[in-house]
Write a structure and sequence with these properties.
GO terms for molecular function: copper ion binding; S-methyl-5-thioadenosine phosphorylase activity. It comes from Klebsiella pneumoniae. The protein has eight helices and 14 strands. By secondary structure, the chain is of the alpha+beta class. It has one domain: 4-Layer Sandwich (CNF1/YfiH-like putative cysteine hydrolases). The protein has a six-stranded mixed beta sheet. A three-stranded antiparallel beta sheet has the order 1-14-4. A three-stranded antiparallel beta sheet has the order 8-10-9. The two termini are 27 Å apart. 38% of the residues are buried.
Length: 246
């Protein structure tokens, strides 16, 4: 099913949606400003088509009628817009992007255009929750070693949770290691929003964790991290109005 944001719906001329895997498959990707997502902190300021896809995890534009979007699995899909509808930005924010500053850099694009944080709205689509985001004990140190790791240290208690004993809730994944922790991606983004000065009322969180049984989740490993990627693909898109439209 598609999710839409009441905050973005209130902006005249902005069309947007967070789509599920089936709707995403039918979406005309050629209409999006193309980028190659690399789990980094680069924001592509789209002004005109380029001969090759830039490596970036966010797309910012003021071009009327231009669609921007991202495809995610576990990561946070963010759609940001100025309240006057002049500027929009789509953001792919996983743990690597968050710790290295993808949200900070995206907000900076609006500030560079003279848009105050109070004049922004942010919609966040469905993403993995701490019930299912298992990481190894060494993951915390891995985050500390990244640029921006000091922010992780300040919010450690909010970002990491422990779990002991058997799991009775069918929507919670069983631990794969006795020392492993559970990581809260949303809490990380909330801490970043708060430090940047974004009011909670300007942020809308959409969607829920999928209800597929644990046996249907496909575990993958990335260094010291154990993750369960869900079969739920989100693509957020946001389009500026055509010139002269209402």
């Amino acid at each position: 099913m598609a999710y839409t944001s009441r905050l973005l719906n209130a902006i005249p001329g902005i069309r947007h949606a967070f789509l599920d895997v089936h709707e995403t498959a039918a979406f005309p990707y050629a209409e999006l400003a193309p980028v190659k997502l690399v789990h980094g902190n680069e924001v592509h300021h789209y002004q005109q088509p380029l001969p090759t896809r830039p490596h970036a995890d966010a797309v910012f534009t003021a071009v009327a009628g231009q669609k921007v979007g991202v495809v995610t699995a576990d990561c946070l899909p963010l759609l940001i817009a100025s309240r006057d509808g002049r500027y929009v930005c789509s953001v792919h924010a996983g743990w690597q992007g968050l710790v290295s500053g993808i949200v900070d850099n995206s907000l900076a694009c609006f500030r560079q255009q003279g848009v105050a944080l109070a004049d922004l709205v942010i919609a966040v689509g469905p993403h993995i929750h701490p019930c299912c985001y298992e990481v190894s004990a060494g993951f915390y140190q891995q985050l500390l070693d990244q640029p921006g790791g000091d922010r992780v240290a300040r919010h450690r208690q909010r970002l990491f949770h422990s779990r002991s004993g058997p799991v009775s809730d069918p929507l919670k994944a069983a631990a794969r290691g006795s020392d492993n922790l559970w990581f809260d991606l949303r809490a990380f983004a909330e801490a970043i929003f708060a430090e940047a000065g974004v009011a909670p009322a300007s942020v809308e969180w959409l969607g829920v964790v999928p209800t597929a049984p644990r046996s249907r989740w496909a575990p993958t490993g990335a260094g010291p991290i154990f993750r369960r990627r869900r079969a739920f693909s989100i693509r957020g898109s946001c389009a500026k109005p055509e010139a002269g439209s209402r």
